[in-house]
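Ticket #4471: complex job returned nothing on first submit. Input attached below:
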Amino acid sequence: MGIGTALAVAGAACAALFAGIGSAIGVGRGGQAAAGVVTDDPNKFSQVLILQLLPGTQGIYGLLIAFIALSRMGIMSGTPAELSVGTGLMYLFACAPMAFVGLVSAMQQAKASVASIGLVAKRPDQFGKSMIFPAMVETYAILALLVSILAINGIPA
Amino acid sequence: MEDKQFIYAVARVRHHELSLLSDQFIDRLIHSESVKAALDTLNTQGWDGDDPDSILNNQENSIWDFVSELVDDLSVFDVFLLKNDCHNLKAAIKSSYMGLKPEDTPVLDRAITDPATVIKAVSEKDFSRLPESMQQSAADALEEIFRTHDGHMSDTIIDRATLDAIRAAGKRSQTPVLSLYSEVTIASSDIKIAVRGADTKASREYFELAIAPCDTLDKDELVSAALAGKDAVCEYLMRTKYADGVPELKKSISAFERWCDNLLIDYIKPQIHNPSTLGPVAAYILARQNEIKTVRIVISGIENNLGDESIRERVRAMYV
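Support reply: We reran it on our side without changes. The output follows.
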């Protein structure tokens, strides 16, 4: 396997790795807040569970980008293409938006989720509104996902 | 304390904030026709107990039981508990002076140092059993009361050491709410000492001993003002951040105490929107102590037939 292919695989790995780390941290923080609320009011379980899970989507997006990139490289089918260094770098940079925006947005979304869980703890009737605040952060993860998909698809085979 | 623990703790505090007493509830409580009616009203909020003392003690204990579930190390809240240690040390010294049995010493259970240790340390004059910040003041206060038979001076020595310890604990906490609490506590104590001392024409030596240094007041200026009289103290305070409290101070010390308590509640209110630091937990403790103090004032007012308006003038603003 050449350096080009290694760089491309590194790009795919970064997308799954960093976005996954961000989501793991985010869902973990949300879980602590959710557990705090459910300790005193188990009836709010379903509401806080949804808020806890919101920062988990970045990990899924990272995984998706990794799959697309690895498929395009032929690694999923067991016939990896020999890529030039230039093409490998293109894959690496194409995966970068999802990797870094995924990491940061999941951690920031967790903060919004934790605050929203606090809101639901005090005002359960505001659950709908409380979902919107962390959901706004999702916009940027989706934009990064789109850019990464478009960039990967644009790399010459 | 790690960040993750704050998140869990703050989420639990958010739920418990729902059961904090509101200004409207306190207003209803003031309107109670008798102490029994007031206790019945409190029962509806989960304040259980047979008599006012047991209700208030249960509530005080419930604060620390709850906080103990949230944090492994309660030392971050030393700033709140130091006054209980101060009370216990004063009680132990007076008990020793009066020759009371240890079991007859009126101590508070919720303190940083085990009350039994404090009583034993004083009775055996082995002050090394006490925390470092209490050792010297305990020895000095005990010596003072036996030498001069002046309980007030003995208390002053302990109060001063406690204020210094509160200041150190506030700075050590690195939590704005706790630092603020320690600063306002020390400043309000200093101001009260200055005014009371000015009324009784206390000496410079007394003021130097009793007034603790703090960041928002200049000790030298306050001492000089106290020596010149109450008006000079008020004049000095007009140049400080406590200027708004001067009209209350002119009314009475208790009106000024109320103003200080309300000032603290105003300061901590932003913690209602703080999602993940220690601030909301500290604010919750302060809010709970504030409502216990307020309920005590209301019940005492009803017991003494003070009248609604008179009680209302004494009650504190609520956190929620």
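The interface with chain B takes residues 28-29, 32-37, 39-41, 111, 114-115, 117-118, 121-122 of chain A (CB under 8 Å). Closing as resolved unless it happens again.
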